Amino acid sequence: MSDNLHAEIIQHLPHLRAFALMLTRERTLADDLVQETVVRALSHADQFQPGSNFKAWISTILRNSFFNELRHRGRVTQLNLGVTHEEPTTSGGQEENIDVRDFERAFKTLSAVHREALVLVGASGFSYEEAAKVADCAVGTMKSRVSRARLQLQQILEGEKTAPALEPVAAEIPRRQLERNRAAARPQAWLGGAY
Q1: Mean pLDDT of all residues in the chain?
Q2: Strand, helix or coil at 38?
Q3: CATH architecture designation of domain 1-75
């Protein structure tokens, strides 16, 4: 069991680091979070049930460690939405890099739960059911978070708004339907799949 656990941890380190980086938005904090996750996984190895989804188990540990740290700091709500990070400039003719930077900036404005939902479903390849288990929420809640996060990203990237605002759900329904109709006409691969 111990050798298998070590091998699984090593195999999933790139995923853990990417997930931690998306949540923390800072390399040193992400590295610390991954280290904390590995320590917790090793110290609670007896809680892992062989044959179950190791990636979901260790992702849950990472997620819980992240939110525990936020609670400890007293910053459970939005994280520095107004903070912009200095980005190095790119040489001319590299529009793809500009698009990626624009996406990263927009992604950083999302709330932690919306970033988490997109990372789990879009980047990590979890199904909605698996992502809901990792995030300890209902499947419908995960679908809603992913949908809202995609919509907010799309609005920011299209210049319709500069930062996501929390709006009443009833007010979002007609606009969401309109956005879905528009989105169906063009690919949304960069947002992690279709609505």
Answers
A1: 75
A2: helix
A3: Orthogonal Bundle (1.10)
CB 150 within 8 A of CB 188: yes
φ, ψ dihedrals at 192, nearest 5°? 95, 20
* CA 150 to mean position of chain CA atoms: 11
Cα separation, 132 vs 120, whole angstroms: 9
> How far apart are the C-alpha atoms of 33 and 134, rounded to whole Å?
16
SS3 177: helix
Record: fold of 94-195:
Arc Repressor Mutant, subunit A (1.10.10)
Pairwise CA distance, residues 68 & 60, whole Å: 12
For the segment 41-58, what is each residue's pLDDT rounded down to a tens digit? 999 988 888 888 999 999
Q: Which one, of 79, 125, 87, 126, lies nearest residue 104 by Cα?
A: 87
- pLDDT level of residue 17 (50, 70, 90 thresholds): very high
Q: Residue 91, Cβ neighbours under 10 Å: how many?
A: 6
Closest CA to 50 of 4, 89, 83: 4
Q: Residue 35 is encoded by which pair of tokens?
A: 């280290």
What residue ranges do the domains of the chain occupy? 1-75, 94-195
